[in-house]
Amino acid sequence: MRRIVGTAIAVAGTFMHPYSAAADNLDAVLRRIEALEQSNAALNRENAALRDRVRRIEGNRNAATANPPTAAPTAAQAAATPVAAAAGSMAAAPGTVTKAPNRWLDATTVTLYGAADLSLDVFDVGVFDQKTKAAVASNSSYFGVRVRHDLGYSGYPGWAALLQYETLVEASSTPSERAALGSRDSFVGVDGPYGAVKVGKSDTPYKRSTALFDPFRNTIGDYNSIMGNTGGDARAEFDPRLPHSIWYESPVVNGFQVMALVSPGQNSATPNGIGGASSNFPFGEFNCSGSTPRSSGSGFPPANQGFGECTDGAFDTAVSVSATYKQGPFTLIGAYELHKDTNRLGDEGGIVTGVGVHDEWAAKVGGGVMLPTHTQLFGIFERMQREGTNPLFNERTRDGAYASVTQFVGMWELSAAWAHAFKTPGDPGVFSGIVGDPKNQADMYSVGARYRFDKDFSVYLVGAWLKNGPGAHYCLGASGHGFAICDRDAQNDTIPGTTIKAVSMGLTYNFSGDIIGNSSPAPAPMIAK
Are 120 and 240 part of one and the same domain? Predict the structure, then answer.
């Protein structure tokens, strides 16, 4: 064929250019044709090799599916998956049987994530037999794994299965069940066009609605020293993570989202039983509902295997709802939470009756704005109330207010905040002989600076000052900090009316990364579900 083409070109060249240069032109054309033929041959060999490689990869993957290896994949095996995926765009050779992709790998994203927050704290609780002390805290350090399985590959476009296990990490202290697997937000659920439904354990919508309003969260200046804290002690009752819960999270529509959670009481205690209603451990638990494990209100260690031990704030069914609006620089929230049959018999102390078992609820509204000067402002007003109790000893009903400001300057965040606990109608402090108005109220002031080396690593310095009224005993770091800094003496007795001062310097590191994943939307299913 090459000779025929060459002869034709030569004849044409003779008629067009009857000169000796025709021979040179013919040789040049022949050399170009030969080079093209060699290039085509090389491409054919490469195509054949690639087809063979794809067949081997497909065979290896089918064998691995039938007999999964127990050892970790080699680098070559790991590299096979993207090659096979790329080969999927090639036309199949005649007689080749096409197979559906590995839907689990293509549809599932597995993410490892976590945070480390450790601090050195120096504090003075203002109690006569306590001096200035120093301590190292793990704060809210945690580790988790999150899985999202896209059901579009199975014929349900827009839907996904969800799974999360998250645990507290006691990086500086001795672990207990507080740091057991699943001690933090852990659940299984389903996400779809109309929102997500989850079952497990979670921060309540009430808590989540204003979590980002506090630039000092998890530090000694955490706003839960006062906000959500009905008794002014080591536990913020309306800042809970509730087990045995089911909840709904709506999609965000034009910046608006609603959340609702219900946590069944799971409690066998009756009003006339030992300790009264809600006084037993919930089914499947060895901590009282609404408590901090092995700490405030937990009933640890139980003298009666949990029967009648939960008389310091344990409750039956809890309901929590929130509505948030975030659009541009503006944020607005409203939230409500109810704790049914909250047991406060422990407050009676065998002296007064009427405290007993009653409902407690809290409601709050808040807002924020980011100014053009890169200044973030937040504010909250909160009402907490205990129904039907003896007002003379009622320290669980009061109002609270909070305001914070953060100025962003390059990689710096400079913040200040104020929280105020309004006076309660009564106080159990009359047991201690306080005469007249105990002024069970408090103010907390926090200032601090954080420098972010990048989005993951930062260092911070925080100072906090808390002034208790004569009958008040609020603590610093009552919720997210590694431990509460309270006005207790060497016998662990509460000394009201003190001023607590603290300084804390800490390091934080956050990480998150997909170890398995294809975050792109699922295509139409290739095979019937």
Answer: yes
Which residues have a Cβ under 8 Å from the Cβ of 137 and sit 6 or more positions away? 118, 119, 121, 172, 173, 477, 481, 482, 483
d(CA 341, CA 87) in angstroms, rounded, equals 63
pLDDT digits (tens, 9 = 90+) for 119-176: 999 999 999 999 999 999 999 999 999 999 999 988 999 999 999 999 999 888 887 7
Q: How far apart are CA 443 and CA 76, in angstroms?
A: 63
Q: What is the DSSP letter of 485?
A: B
pLDDT digits 0-9 by tens, 425-471: 887 765 555 556 788 999 999 999 999 999 999 999 999 999 999 98
pTM confidence score: 0.78
The closest alpha carbon to 422, from 402, 388, 399, belongs to 399
Coil vs helix vs strand at 63? helix
Cis previous bond, 193, omega within 30: no
Distance of CA 98 to the CA centre of its chain: 42
Query: Which element (helix H / strand E) includes 51?
Result: helix 21-66
Nearest Cα residue to 470 out of 395, 417, 391: 395
Structural domain boundaries enclosing 244:
110-265+315-515
Which residues fall within 8 angstroms of residue 34, CB to CB, at 6 or more apart? Answer: 2
Residue 261 shares a structural domain with residue 381: yes
Residue with tokens 């040789």: 27
Number of domains in the chain: 2
Amino acid of residue 211: A
Task: Check whether residue 357 and residue 249 sit in a common domain.
Answer: yes
**Closest-CA residue to 83 (of 109, 103, 57):** 57
Q: Please spell the DSSP secondary structure of 203-271, one letter per residue.
A: E-HHHHHTGGG-TTTTSTT-GGGTTT-SSSSS--TTS-EEEEEEEEEPPPBTTEEEEEEEE-------T
